[in-house]
Specification:
Elements (H helix, E strand, L loop, with lengths): L6 H11 L4 H14 L3 E2 L11 E7 L2 E7 L6 E8 L4 E12 L2 E9 L12 E9 L4 E11 L27 E4 L6 H10 L6 E10 L4 E3 L5 E4 L2 H16 L6 E8 L16 H10 L3 H9 L2 E5 L2 E2 L22 E4 L9 H14 L4 E4 L10 H9 L2 E6 L1 E3 L6 E4 L2 H14 L1
Parallel strand pairs: 1-2, 4-13, 4-14, 14-18, 15-19, 16-17
Antiparallel strand pairs: 2-3, 3-13, 5-6, 6-9, 7-8, 7-10, 11-12, 12-20, 16-18, 19-20
Helix pairs in contact: 2-4, 4-9, 7-9
């Protein structure tokens, strides 16, 4: 039954608004961790030993953990990701056509193009300065727009016509002739820095619509970046709440670049997580191998709720519905890392949390997406289960989930850490 206690989802809304990019998500997560007594560590420094909570950030990815009074014997890892499909500003962004100033962008991840049309957009990201420091920037007001062609000029608009990603998805931001350097000068001014000192940038379009409850009883929750800030936020809340977990160290690992394949030095296919775990148990390989053998990971990402207008697209016997708790995601072909042992791990965690849960399986003729689960499980050689919230409109500029489900997911993460 719906709990109608929305304090967790209210906090998720605040987290989403503070986290328009992976870099902002890491900064906001770090702020919350430090408020809870965690300490940020630099990878190039010698790390302290002994009990306490710490975290490290690398290129939009964050790993945080809490060591107790006992020697580390294993890990309980809750995995997520910080990135979202959107458009990334190109290195030389100033362009235009027919008297309009435009911004050159590149598609980042699996973007459903139509959901970004006729929508007020902002820009956010990071600037890397001459001295190597980073400055976050978020122009939190309408700045860009990708205008739809009027139906009078496109009589096939309702017939599923495909948009060209290079020529038909370039946002406008003003009138006149483009001037080289104008956009970055504007962004630098918004960040309070000199454009001449900006030596690199990662800037993305941002959907401006505020998170909101929806439905007759407010039982639905709509926002951008539910995929996958719901999981990052859930793991963060659970880690802060997890105390007295003994020799099995709770770990939150939220990676950047999941939506584009995870093949970077900071992503799930990189060595970041393995490096952190090694440092927590020491240099001895035997000790590390034994700790990994005693460990388990829960990879958390959103999945597809059954769509009422396209129910035939879903596996008939496995149709998750928002409001009924998180789901375990199962794939015989290991697109999700969930076998019998992993299912048992999930059910123990859900039982410990006292929450409802569901099962998700793709149709045999629609393979669906994948997650960091198979990647991280293979990288580490650790038992891994794939879970997530059922949502509608995945990868859209406005996604939809059950209003109670984010709290259920945080409870599940805490169940993993403490059961």
């Amino acid at each position: 039954m719906p709990r109608f206690d929305r304090s967790h989802t209210d906090d998720l809304a605040a987290f989403i608004e503070a986290s328009p990019t992976p870099y902002h998500a890491c900064a906001e997560a770090g702020r919350r961790l430090e408020a809870a007594g965690f300490r940020r560590l630099a990878e190039a420094d010698e790390w302290p030993t002994g009990p306490g909570g710490c975290y490290a950030v690398r290129d939009g990815s964050l790993i945080a953990w809490r060591v107790g009074d006992e020697d580390v014997e294993g890990f309980r890892i809750f995995g997520a990701h910080t990135d979202t499909p959107t458009f990334k500003v190109k290195p030389r962004p100033d362009t235009g056509s027919a008297g309009w100033k435009q911004i050159a962008v590149e598609v980042y991840g699996g973007v459903p193009h139509q959901t970004w049309l006729d929508r007020d957009l902002s820009v956010a990201g990071r600037l890397v300065m001459r001295d190597g420091s980073e400055v976050l920037v978020h122009v939190d007001r309408p700045l860009l727009r990708v205008p739809r062609l009027a139906i009078h000029l496109d009589r096939g608009a309702n017939e599923g016509q495909k948009l060209n990603a290079q020529s038909q998805l370039t946002p406008i931001w003003g009138l006149g002739e483009p001037r080289e350097g104008e956009f970055l000068e504007f962004i630098a001014a918004e960040a309070g820095v000199d454009a001449a000192d900006v030596f690199g940038h990662d800037l993305f379009t941002v959907a401006l619509d505020r998170p909101a409850y929806l439905g007759k009883d407010g039982e639905l929750f709509a926002a951008w970046r539910l995929d996958n800030l719901t999981s990052t936020h859930a793991g963060l809340a659970a880690l802060i709440a997890a105390e007295g977990t003994g020799a099995r160290v709770p770990v939150l690992a939220s990676f950047n670049y999941e939506e584009v394949g995870s093949m970077t030095y900071s992503a799930a296919q990189g060595p970041f997580l393995e490096s952190v775990l090694h440092r927590l148990v020491g240099d001895d390989f035997e000790t590390y191998a034994r700790a990994i053998a005693r460990s388990a990971m829960m990879s958390s990402d959103t999945g597809n709720a059954v769509h009422p207008n396209f129910a035939e697209k879903h596996e008939p016997g496995h149709r998750p519905v928002p409001g009924r708790g998180p789901m375990i995601k199962v794939s015989a072909n290991q697109r999700y890392a969930s076998g019998a042992e992993e299912q048992a791990l999930f059910r123990r965690s859900a039982d410990a949390a006292g929450i409802p849960w569901q099962t998700y399986v793709n149709r045999n003729d629609i393979p669906g997406g994948t997650t960091i689960g198979p990647i991280s499980g293979t990288q580490l050689g650790v038992l891994t289960v794939d879970v997530g919230l059922p949502i509608l409109s995945m990868h859209s500029a406005r996604e939809l989930c059950g209003a109670d489900d984010p709290a259920y997911l945080a409870d599940l993460a805490l169940g993993l850490f403490t059961h």
